[in-house]
Structures are given as structure tokens and as C-alpha cells.
TrEMBL record, chain A:
Gene that produces this protein: pyrB
HAMAP family with a match to the protein in the record: Asp_carb_tr (MF_00001)
Pathway: Pyrimidine metabolism; UMP biosynthesis via de novo pathway; (S)-dihydroorotate from bicarbonate: step 2/3
EC id: 2.1.3.2
PROSITE patterns per UniProt: CARBAMOYLTRANSFERASE
Residues that, per the record, bind carbamoyl phosphate: 55-56, 105, 133, 136, 264-265
Protein name: Aspartate carbamoyltransferase
Aspartate/ornithine carbamoyltransferase Asp/Orn-binding domain residues: 152-302
Subunit (UniProt): Heterododecamer (2C3:3R2) of six catalytic PyrB chains organized as two trimers (C3), and six regulatory PyrI chains organized as three dimers (R2).
Reaction equations catalysed: carbamoyl phosphate + L-aspartate = N-carbamoyl-L-aspartate + phosphate + H(+)
Binding site for L-aspartate: 83, 166, 223
UniProtKB/TrEMBL annotation, chain B:
Keywords: Hydrolase, Metal-binding, Pyrimidine biosynthesis, Zinc
Record domain Dihydroorotase catalytic: where: 43-230
Reactions listed under catalytic activity: (S)-dihydroorotate + H2O = N-carbamoyl-L-aspartate + H(+)
Pathway terms, separated by semicolons: Pyrimidine metabolism; UMP biosynthesis via de novo pathway; (S)-dihydroorotate from bicarbonate: step 3/3
Protein name per the record: Dihydroorotase
Binding site for Zn(2+) 2: 146, 173, 226
Gene name per UniProt: pyrC
Superkingdom of origin: Bacteria
Function statement: Catalyzes the reversible cyclization of carbamoyl aspartate to dihydroorotate.
Alphabetized CDD domains for the sequence: DHOase_IIa
Signal peptide segment: none
PANTHER family registered for this protein in UniProt: ALLANTOINASE
Top-tier EC class: hydrolase
Cofactor binding summary note: Binds 2 Zn(2+) ions per subunit.
Length: 307, 421
């Protein structure tokens, strides 16, 4: 098993599949009355969060606690971090406290890579800057597999602000490793340069959402921040949703079986309409539940559990 | 005055000969009191001249001082360095440039030639007192806001025009600021993969294209700092063909390293302009040999440990380079001694107007020279650097060539590979 999960590129197909299979076993546990395993008893998992992200933090916290680990939440606010302590010094502190795993959310791309050089324990990337969010990709893959029965051969559109999206990068890497065919859709200003060469040779790019929808098994809508407007990535929120938002008529262009995903939090009315978000195709609530299972699987396997 | 006899030295790779250094000059004969140095197997080059050095004093003496930077320079084979203006306070007045100049004289290991800021506080709003710096004891001829681009085209035009009065030259840090907001590394495949904000090549090329047109329009001299892209080379090639008075420099690291190194997220590889692609490196090497790029300049940029031992985005850009420049250039160009002497000594001395430097090693010339053992190999160890900072990208790399001795006006600053003081 790998030691750290810093990038979805750390996962080969076999390892990724093992994590998804393990997540399935963890999910079965969620149906029980007592939702707890003794596996990580006596182990310490630190949630080191430099950004506000209640949903990701509580997802990791729930995952660690269901495995009976001791959980320490270390948030940048109200800690020595806000007094200017360096990441290295924080890392050495966590090291001295005997952290077996550090789950890190950080606004700077690559912070988990730096952290892994300073701690002995496992490092799990819970979102770093505009780089990656590998456990989100795992829970998304798990959700696709649960709904559609497979990942190999699926056609997946990832729509929106790919440039600033850590979710998109991790999903492209993981999904192509598992044999899906990914098409990135958005205005040219929000598609990063050389994306296929950078992530996966098979990745396609389209600027036309309507034309790709009829072929897709999965459409994943990314959150688009209205602030991007000020930076001239697109002219207005209204024009953005007209061209790249998913509404009812567009959703009906999808094949019957296709699903709609969103990593949350959503901007209802911007990239996705309530009609779509609340439809039966939407997996948005399932994704949250699957997030706990996927993160349990990651912590379990990284900390030496056996499948 | 001391005198030395360099026995069996190869001047620029020529057949071994003896070279006498008497009273600060190269002499036809040595007197009997001359100290004899066995220089067999060593190559003599005119003392190297760096057009682009950050000495950090005043302001960041924890990262470098004029003295420690001078020592590093001498150990790298330099006899003159041009000290960039982005100190604290900024070298934008006669007082500050004279202070740096005086500190250089006191250190006495290389000639420290201050560069003056183009604008007050490097803010890009108002011309600094360029004339006062030019007529000060520091005798400033090169002006640069390096670290920042003189982005305002009207201000750049005025600066280029104004310095004609005292044969000054504007050294531009070519970076369109609006195109590089938040930029962390070269924009391309690697930045996309790493999720780091890209620094597009066009941000450099657009400013160089504008500035060569401005220089042509007003008939002034322009120098372009740290050229880093293949596209910039093409802009310069065309401008030179038209007769524009433009010169350009490339750093050793842009001749050797590529953006792939950022994949470690180790900020020792973070530099501005950023490391580019292999095809840019190739174009820069060709341009240097051809003369489209005139000189190698180090952009020696010392940084304190805490400014590098952090997240990539929070780290300061820059690399130390004085002590590794010649070995890197040797590894890139091979033992083309005359070409190396031209790109690292004669031409930079001419651009900076440093008449005592970059001269041929012939009788009567100032004895500013360095002796290199081309057969030696060295593994770069950051702990061994004389610079006060350790941010070298070459840690653990084996580089060819060892600087054995450096003489400043006939006086050794380095002997046996060690600083004399």
C-alpha cells in the first residue's frame, strides 16, 4: 500500500480499485446500528485545516471516528498558525505528538508534498490550492460505480471552472486510470493550457456543452465562483449559466441512465438549477454519504489495515 | 606592491605560458621577488563580470551582505559585480548607491558597481534621481527596477531618453504585471498538472517587443535582464538585425534547468522569471552562442532559510548563483574559453562601462583574472557556499571546473580555491 495520498496520481488502477472495494465494505457498516470498527484504536489522526471547509473536515472526522481513531482537529483559526507559525513548525509539533496520519487542507498547491517531507506519518491531501482533492475523486468514482456498475468505458463530462478546480484535476487522473473517458467542458478561459499533456493523453476538451451531453454517462458540474467575473474569465453570471449551466432542458439531452454530480457546495441557479440538483439523476446527497466511506477506506488502508 | 608569476598557465586554452602580475598589471617580466604559482593545467580567463547580482545590503543582511556576496563572487571567478537596486531602502538615491559602493570598496574582494533604481522605491510611478546617482561617487550607469518591470510605457520611454545625457542604460525586468498576477511558475503542461498559477512566456515577450521599439524610437540603449523564453530570443534577433541598441542576458539556471523541477514543490526551484521548458533552454543556449544573447548574468538572489522552507506559493523567488555560474556555463558550452570570456567578462564589462575589467590578458592590462582547473569536478554542497544563503538549485549536482585563484588588480582574492580574506 502507498504511504501518502497527495495526488490521485499516487494511485494505480489496482490500488484505486482496492480503495473503492474497501469503501463498499465500509458503506455496509453504515447500515448497522453500531457504525464503528475498532481497527484504528490507539491511532491518532490529525485534521490540519488551513481553510474553512466544514463538510470535508466533518467527513474526515466521521471517517476516523468510525474506525475508532483518536481525532485531533487543528484549524488555522484560533491556533498558533494565525500567529504566523510556519507549516514546518506545525508539522514538527504534530510529529512530536505522534500523529499517525495528517489530513491537510491548505490554500497553497503542493502543501501536502511539503508536509510529507517533515512528518513520519501518512499525509492525506484534503484539497490543496488549485491542485488536487484526491479523496473527492475517490468518492466520485465510488458513486459512479454504485450507480452505473462500472467505471471502465464510462463517458464523463466535467463542466465549469476546470482551471481553478482541484476536484477536476484529481477526477481526470483517477477516472482515466480506471478506464473512463473524460471530456472537460467550459469557456476557453477556464480550461488550463496543455491539459491533456499534463494529466492524461485521452482527455478531451469541448467548449460546447450541448453537443457533448447526448453521449455522456456522467455529468459533473463544478462550482463556479461569481468573483471570476471580475477577472474577465466570463462576462457575467447570466451568460455563464446560459452557456455552461445545467438546467432541465439540457439535462433532458442526456441519455436516460446518465447521472448528474456536483462536489458541493452548489451555486443553485448558476452552474446548476434546482430542478436538476433535486432530480432523481442527481447524486449530490449520495456523494456526501459516500465521502465518509471512501475516506474510511483511505485511512484504513494507509494506516496499515488489510482489506 | 605584490607581484606574482603564474607558471605554465593556459590563457584561454592556448599553449602554456608564464604570466607576470606586477603592480596591478600584467607585465612582460616578473622581478625576482615575485611569488611563483604553479598554474600548469589551469586556464586563465579575464576576471568575470556579473551584470546582475543581489547583495541584499542594506536591508536583508541576514540573507547576504556586500562582504559575503563579494567573497562568493571572488570564489566564483568574478572581479566585478553589479549590485541590483532592490535593497531596503531601495538604491534610488545617491546616498544609498554610494553606501553600497563604499561597502564594496571596504570588502575589497571584487569591484562592486551599484545599479540605481529607475523609479522611486521601485514603485514605477516617478523617476528616481538618475542624474544624481550617475554623478555620485558610485558613478552609476545601469538603472533597473529589477524585481519589478517598468511597466508604464510612457515612464519607460522617458527613462530611456533621460539617461542618454550620461550614457546610461536601462536594464529591464521584462514582465507584464497584469499577465503574471499571482504567477508561480512557467505556464504550461507542468503548471496545469501542479495547479500552480502560470507565468506565461508572452508576458516577457510582449514587454521586450515594446521596449525594443521604444529604444529604437528614442535612440537609446536597452538591456534586457534574464531572458528566459524562445520567443524572447526571436524578438531580440529581429531587433538586433534592425540595428536597435539592445543587449540581453541569460542566467546560468535558465541555460540548464527546466520547469519539471517544480514537481517537487521545493521552492529552491522557484525563481523569477521561472524555469521554462527544454525547448526554451535549447533556444537560449543557441542564442548565447550566436550572440543574440550577449552575456551570462547570475541573478544571484540569496534568501534566508525561512523564505524558502515553506509552501511554494509563499516562498520568495530566486537562487544563489555566483559560485556555480562558471561551472554551469562550462557544462553547457564546453571548454570554449574565448566564447566564455566574451559572454562572462568582456561583453558585460563593456555594457556596464567597467573599463578596467574584461580586458585581454596582455602586457599592460589590469591584472583582473581568474584561474580555472577545467579537469576538476565538484559536487555542489550548499553548506560549503560562501554566500550567507543556501538556496542553490544544484545541491548534490556534479559540475565541471574549479576556480583555483582570482586576482583583483594583481592581488589575489582567491588562492587554492579559498578566499584570501
Amino acid at each position: 500500500m502507498i504511504k501518502h495520498l497527495r495526488s490521485a496520481a499516487d494511485l494505480d488502477a489496482a490500488t484505486a480499485t482496492l480503495i473503492l472495494d474497501t469503501a463498499g465494505e465500509m458503506a455496509a457498516l453504515a447500515g448497522r446500528e453500531v457504525k464503528k470498527l475498532p481497527t484504528l484504536r490507539g491511532r491518532t489522526v490529525v485534521n490540519l485545516f488551513y481553510e474553512d471547509s466544514t463538510r470535508t473536515r466533518i467527513s474526515f472526522e466521521a471517517a476516523a471516528k468510525r474506525l475508532s481513531a483518536d481525532v485531533i482537529n487543528f484549524s488555522a483559526k484560533g491556533s498558533s498558525v494565525s500567529k504566523g507559525e510556519s507549516l514546518k513548525d506545525t508539522a514538527l509539533t504534530l510529529q512530536a505528538m505522534g500523529a499517525d496520519a495528517v489530513v491537510i487542507r491548505h490554500p497553497a498547491s503542493g502543501a501536502p508534498h511539503r508536509l510529507a517531507q517533515w512528518v513520519d506519518g501518512s499525509v492525506v491531501n484534503a484539497g490543496d490550492g488549485t491542485h488536487e482533492h484526491p479523496t473527492q475523486a475517490l468518492l466520485d468514482a465510488y458513486t459512479m460505480r454504485s450507480r452505473l456498475g462500472r467505471i471502465d468505458g464510462l463517458k464523463v463530462a466535467i463542466v465549469g471552472d476546470v482551471l481553478h478546480s482541484r476536484v477536476a484535476r484529481s477526477n481526470v487522473l483517477l477516472l482515466t486510470t480506471l478506464g473512463a473517458e473524460v471530456t472537460l467542458v467550459g469557456p476557453p478561459t477556464l480550461i488550463p493550457v496543455d491539459i491533456a499533456a499534463a494529466l492524461s493523453k485521452t482527455t478531451k476538451v469541448s467548449y460546447d456543452l450541448d453537443s457533448v451531453l447526448p453521449e455522456m454517462d456522467v455529468v459533473m458540474m463544478l462550482r463556479v465562483q461569481t468573483e471570476r467575473m471580475q477577472d474577465s474569465y466570463f462576462p457575467s453570471a447570466r451568460e455563464y449559466s446560459r452557456r455552461y449551466g445545467l438546467d432541465g432542458p439540457r439535462m433532458r439531452r442526456l441519455p436516460e441512465h446518465a447521472i448528474v454530480m456536483h462536489p458541493g457546495p452548489m451555486n443553485r441557479g448558476m452552474e446548476i438549477t434546482p430542478e436538476v440538483a433535486d432530480s432523481s439523476r442527481s447524486t449530490i446527497v449520495e456523494q456526501v454519504a459516500n465521502g465518509v466511506s471512501a475516506r474510511m477506506a483511505v485511512l484504513y488502508l494507509l494506516l496499515g489495515g488489510k482489506a | 606592491m605584490s607581484s606574482y608569476l603564474l607558471r605554465g598557465v593556459s590563457v584561454l586554452g592556448a599553449a602554456p605560458t608564464d604570466l607576470a602580475l606586477v603592480d596591478g598589471h600584467i607585465s612582460g617580466t616578473a622581478d625576482s621577488s615575485a611569488e611563483v604559482i604553479d598554474a600548469s593545467g589551469l586556464v586563465a580567463l579575464p576576471g568575470l563580470v556579473d551584470l546582475h547580482t543581489h547583495l541584499r545590503e542594506p536591508g536583508r543582511e541576514d540573507a547576504e551582505t556586500v562582504e559575503t556576496g563579494s567573497r562568493a563572487a571572488a570564489l566564483g571567478g568574478y572581479t566585478a559585480v553589479c549590485a541590483m537596486a532592490n535593497t531596503s531602502p531601495v538604491a534610488d538615491t545617491a546616498g544609498v548607491v554610494e553606501q553600497v559602493w563604499r561597502l564594496g570598496r571596504e570588502a575589497g574582494m571584487v569591484d562592486v558597481q551599484p545599479i540605481g533604481a529607475v523609479t522611486v522605491g521601485l514603485a514605477g510611478k516617478q523617476l528616481a534621481e538618475l542624474g544624481a546617482m550617475a554623478t555620485s561617487a558610485a558613478h552609476v550607469r545601469i538603472f533597473s527596477d529589477d524585481g519589478f518591470c517598468v511597466a508604464d510605457p510612457r515612464l519607460m520611454r522617458r527613462a530611456l531618453e533621460y539617461v542618454k545625457a550620461f550614457d546610461g542604460i536601462i536594464a529591464q525586468h521584462a514582465e507584464e504585471p497584469r499577465l503574471t498576477e499571482g504567477a508561480q511558475m512557467h505556464e504550461g503542461e507542468v503548471s496545469t498538472r501542479l495547479g500552480l498559477t502560470g507565468w506565461p512566456a508572452v508576458a516577457e515577450e510582449a514587454i521586450i517587443a515594446r521596449d525594443v521599439l521604444l529604444a529604437e524610437h528614442v535612440g537609446s540603449r536597452l538591456h534586457v535582464c534574464h531572458v528566459s523564453t524562445a520567443g524572447s530570443v526571436e524578438v531580440l534577433r529581429q531587433a538586433k538585425a534592425r540595428g536597435v541598441r539592445v543587449t540581453a542576458e541569460v542566467t546560468p539556471h535558465h541555460l540548464l534547468l527546466t520547469d519539471e523541477l517544480a514537481a517537487s514543490y521545493n521552492p529552491v526551484y522557484k525563481v523569477n522569471p521561472p524555469l521554462r521548458t527544454a525547448s526554451d533552454v535549447h533556444a537560449l543556449r543557441e542564442a548565447l552562442v550566436e550572440g543574440v544573447i550577449d552575456v551570462v548574468a547570475t541573478d544571484h538572489a540569496p534568501h534566508a532559510v525561512e523564505d524558502k522552507e515553506c509552501e511554494w506559493a509563499y516562498a520568495r523567488p530566486g537562487m544563489v548563483g555566483l559560485e556555480t555560474a562558471l561551472p554551469v556555463v562550462l557544462s553547457v558550452l564546453g571548454e570554449r574559453w574565448d566564447l566564455i570570456a566574451d559572454r562572462m567578462s568582456r561583453t558585460p564589462a563593456r555594457i556596464a562601462g567597467l573599463t578596467g575589467h574584461g580586458t585581454d590578458l596582455s602586457v599592460g592590462s589590469p591584472a583582473n583574472l581568474t584561474l580555472v582547473d577545467p579537469s576538476a569536478r565538484r559536487v555542489v554542497d550548499p553548506a560549503e557556499l560562501a554566500s550567507r544563503s543556501r538556496n542553490t538549485p544544484y545541491a548534490g549536482t556534479t559540475l565541471p571546473g574549479r576556480i583555483v585563484a582570482t586576482f583583483l588588480r594583481g592581488v589575489p582574492t582567491v588562492l587554492d580555491g579559498k578566499a584570501v580574506k
